[in-house]
Write a structure and sequence with these properties.
With 421 residues, the chain is α+β, with helices and mostly antiparallel strands. It contains twelve helices and 14 strands. It has helices at residues 2-28, 30-54, 56-77, 96-102, 110-116, 120-133, 178-213, 222-252, 265-281, 302-319, 350-353, 372-385; strands at residues 82-85, 91-94, 137-144, 150-161, 167-176, 256-257, 261-264, 286-291, 297-300, 325-332, 336-344, 389-395, 399-407, 414-415. Helix 1 runs antiparallel to helix 2 (30-54) and helix 10 (302-319) packs antiparallel against helix 12. It is elongated and about 85 Å long. It starts with a helix and ends in a 6-residue tail after the last strand.
């Protein structure tokens, strides 16, 4: 209504000045007529500008232009390759990083040819989700470029909403994650090398030393036997550490599923204590057990839980002061069961306590035995796979607690464990 009134007023004004122009031209001569004609021309131009500025369509086009310029400016500030598509998947514009990545300097077909046709089915499904549900889509896709190089990108596609909150386009971000996969491949090569170049020769050495100790090649004297036993012990420790590293790698990659079965946890701990009694007696260490008379039935994989308990006991004996006591206890609550080993052993400052569980660090001045950190990290992985929690506490009074808690009701979880002990 307002625009209609403006048009009517503009028309009447034009007619009045046209009449004045005719009167002055006839009555007063051409000089004044020319002046008024120029004035009328300027006025008409101004009126046209007023009408144009008051036109809603003109305002809408202006807003659209501003919106497009904002989008173009925004993607130029993004530090990774990015581009904008319409709701049909057609390329509209891209930033300098995208152009550098694709060596693209003009035209409108590169996005379809390089990025979208490779995964056309995926592209169509993505657009449906983005446009209809107004949701962001994220996935990793590989692309092959003109120089035959293949790179992997983490692709994020997000909807662009207009003033009416409707999807008017799609902005796409590309983050190069090729290096991440190259690192994974390097890890695989390292593990393969570890397995072939170290594990296999050590097995051969252990078997050869075993044959010598069994006197398969002739009698050996006591001094020779002692040296051979020490060498065999070192080889076994290194072999055990290599298997732990391999198993930890498989655990991290979730390659094996735990076989959960019902078992009496208290009987499991008692059996492990008997196996470790001789090693404790060598340091004149005595076990003091404190087992509650509970049912202690849990769902767990005994093939991995038993070696974990044995290692924690072995570690506790190894670092306990000679002629001391080791208190071993289990107690059950409504939701979980807790296993604890309390020893008299060197104090570990709180700031370095957690580093012992790091397979890449796992060593402080008082705890330097081969593979200790790696094995403790492995035990943590086993307990986490059972949805449990590792316990590791140290007091300035040289009283340390090591153990774990497990839920009474457990579910099968995927892990990457293999039998290593």
């Amino acid at each position: 209504m307002k625009n209609k009134k403006i048009k009517i007023l503009t028309g009447l004004t034009t007619l009045v000045f046209a009449g004045l122009l005719t009167y002055q031209t006839v009555c007063m001569g051409n000089r004044f007529g020319i002046i008024n004609l120029a004035f009328l021309t300027i006025l008409t131009a101004l009126v046209c500008l007023v009408i144009k500025s008051s036109n809603p369509k003109s305002q809408e086009n202006k807003k659209k232009s501003v919106l497009e310029s904002d989008i173009i400016y925004s993607i130029e500030t993004i530090p990774v390759p990015a581009y904008v598509m319409d709701i049909h998947g057609r390329y509209l514009c891209g930033n300098k990083h995208l152009k550098k990545l694709t060596n693209f300097h003009g035209g409108t077909t590169f996005s379809t040819e390089i990025f979208d046709e490779i995964h056309s089915d995926t592209q169509n499904n993505d657009l449906k989700i983005i446009v209809e549900k107004q949701q962001t889509v994220n996935k990793e896709l590989s692309y092959k470029f003109d120089n035959n190089s293949t790179r992997i990108f983490n692709v994020t596609k997000s909807p662009i909403l207009n003033i009416e909150k409707k999807v008017c386009g799609v902005i796409v971000y590309l983050v190069d994650v090729t290096q991440k996969y190259e690192l994974i491949n390097q890890q695989k090569r390292f593990i393969a090398t570890l397995n072939h170049d170290l594990k296999t020769p050590i097995i051969a050495q252990i078997r050869s030393l075993s044959m010598l100790l069994n006197e398969d090649f002739g009698k050996i004297n006591p001094d020779q036997k002692e040296i051979l036993e020490l060498t065999a012990s070192s080889c076994n420790e290194i072999y055990d550490m290599i298997r732990t590293v391999l198993s930890s790698y498989k655990f991290e990659n979730k390659e094996i599923k735990l076989d959960h079965q019902k078992l009496d946890f208290q009987k499991l701990v008692q059996g492990c204590c008997k196996l470790m009694e001789q090693e404790a007696e060598e340091k004149n260490i005595k076990f003091v057990t404190n087992f509650k008379e509970d049912e202690n039935i849990i769902n767990a994989d005994i093939n991995y839980l038993k070696p974990t308990v044995l290692f924690l006991l072995k570690h506790s004996i190894s670092y306990s002061f000679p002629n001391s006591f080791i208190e071993i206890s289990t107690h059950q609550t409504e939701n979980d069961i807790t296993f604890e080993i309390i020893t008299k052993s060197p104090y570990i400052p709180e700031e370095t306590l957690h580093s012992l569980m790091d397979k890449y660090v796992g060593q402080i001045s008082s705890y330097t035995k081969i593979g200790f950190g790696i094995k403790l990290n492995y035990c943590t992985q086993v307990i986490n796979a059972h949805r449990g929690k590792i316990i590791f506490e140290s007091k300035p009074t040289n009283e340390n607690t090591l153990g774990f808690s497990l839920p009474l009701k457990n579910q099968i979880l995927f892990s990457g464990l293999e039998k290593i002990f």
